[in-house]
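Appendix B. Chain record.
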Amino acid sequence: MPKKKFYWIALIAAAGMFSTGQNQCQTPVAPFNVSGVYDGMWHGQIVNEAGEPVSEMVDCPLHLTFTHDPNLPFPRNLNGTAVAVIDFSCIDLPGNIEPAEASTVNMAFVLGADGKLISGAGGFGIGTGAFLALNGEGADANADGSMDDYAGDWDYLFVLALPGIPPFHIEGTFEIGRVIE
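Structure tokens predicted for this chain:
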């Protein structure tokens, strides 16, 4: 290799090595603490396998309790758990399914550094299955470091091995706000 070419390669490599200390990657930081109790509503309708609505739009209560530690090292600072209490008494379920009482669902969530928050849970067994997904955005409205509101899209898929009841899901939107204790 000619000396001049080696010189330029060494100079570029040295410049790259010395400049990396100034441009190190920053690990994502949680934009707020999600921990807390939240109440609000989910708005949805039953949709069949073909994606067609088969019920009227309803408004139902939603209660979520989040557990989160934004001070943990990355990536755990952007993860946490939630417990959702979902009231189904406000919607007529398909077939001969009896109106369901409030259901408690243990969920996990992932928080983006931009405030996007995806919560989900699911389980499938012999003849039954359910998957709940909440995909939305949290906000710290009063800049106190805690999430105040969370709103977005809602989807709850049901697969039941019951005669005459094909898989269905409840889709719509939700919004909740922090309960001040």
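Further analysis of this model is presented in Appendix C.
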